[in-house]
Design brief:
- By secondary structure, this protein is an alpha/beta fold.
- The chain has one domain: Alpha-Beta Barrel (TIM Barrel).
- Helices cover about 45% and strands about 15% of the residues.
- Strands 1-2-3-4-5-6-7-8 form an eight-stranded parallel barrel, surrounded by four helices.
- Strand 4, helix 4 and strand 5 form a beta-alpha-beta unit.
- Helix 6 crosses helix 7.
- The longest helix is centred in the first third of the chain and has 18 residues.
- The protein is globular, with a radius of gyration of 17 Å.
- The two termini are about 10 Å apart.
- The structure holds cytidine-5'-monophosphate.
Length: about 230
Amino acid sequence: MELCVALDLSSAKENLALAESLKGYSIWMKVGFRAYIRDGKPFIEALKAINPEFKIFLDLKLYDIPNTMADAAEEIAKLGVDMFNIHASAGAVAMKTVMDRLSSYEKRPLVLAVTALTSFNEANFQLIYEKTIDEKAEQFAKISYENGLDGVVCSTFESRAIKNATSEAFLTLCPGIRPFGEDAGDQQRVATLELAQKEGVDYPVIGRPIYKDENPQAKVEQILKVMYP
Ligand code: C5P
């Protein structure tokens, strides 16, 4: 299990200060829409300058026609990030096209597919996908596995079933973690770190419980103690 910290603060300066305070830890940094749209490639470079060992997950959730997604995937690979994601609902052809295109890269980033966003509750999910979250997440995971992706983004509650349906080595990255019962915010399916561990989650993603804490470094320390007692 490896911790992934969401850098969702309102300026590059604040995100980099957070990264600076966490530079002593071997953790992942998640760069999402807000940070990447605003701060782009120089932000990735600035993170690497703080700690070249930081692993970077570019959370841009690609969703387009297969060729456009593969073009974008290639640009992402050139950025030198360690992981990125696409939407599983883009389909098998998009997945295969992306993976084929990345196959020529000696050190390609890990590719995950988003199954069901953790902000969905069952009723809202049904309206769009006409299936339960469990059913759809497992189906999306199987398609992702069959098309050579490395894992999926899901909630802790689907992690075990997804591994059973694919492989124990198929990665699960799970947002919606509230390590010590913090406020859920807009997340609907939140879990504690202990549950995430029990369900075999590979990457717990934690944003607000860390960056809204008055001492994010101490919070990370506390989290790592639970993860590696
Ligand atoms: O602040 P919080 O811990 O809820 O942050 C979760 C992070 O994970 C956010 O950056 C959010 O965009 C991201 N995310 C998510 N659900 C997904 C994929 C990504 O919450 N399915």
